[in-house]
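FORM 7B: Structural annotation worksheet

SECTION A. Query
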Amino acid sequence: MKSRLLLLLLGVVLGLAAAQLAPRFWHRVTPAALRGAPTVGEVESKRWDEDRLLLTLVTDSGAVLATFSRRVAEIDLLVDVGDTVALALRRYRPFVEDPVIDRVVKAAGEAEPLAPAAVEPPPVTEPAPGESPSPDTDVPPGGPEMPDAAVPEPPAASEGRVEGDSPPVTG
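SECTION B. Predicted structure
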């Protein structure tokens, strides 16, 4: 008889503990289809209170005051007034503490691109032999690399050329 009473008390204690702790971890272990529809609302106000962040959301069911005490800096950077936020709540409650944020949709017109639009660079073309590279082409210091055989040797000063004469033709 004592063992049954002890087992009953143990079951009650475990049931009460599970009822208090399960909602915090329930969203991690259940599929989205079983959790139900999230509570979606627009952020009406955002305020810091000591080390907590308070968000007031306006939903179809009514206003929700969400108090965040964990990951406050990250949530503050993510959520702004006017954004639409989806909270993982099973039913409407006016006061919630540290609810799970399922999704944040930024207000229209506020979103700024993080990086410039991807622009394809122009194709790189090699200049034809004897043609100088265009100014917008990247040329390494010292000129373009050429094979040793293609580098012409400067004419010798002893060839008897007079200034203005055309260079001698070799061939």
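SECTION C. Observations
Residues 113-117 have pLDDT under 50 and may be disordered. Helices lie at 2-29, 32-35, 72-78.

SECTION D. Sign-off
Analyst initials: ____
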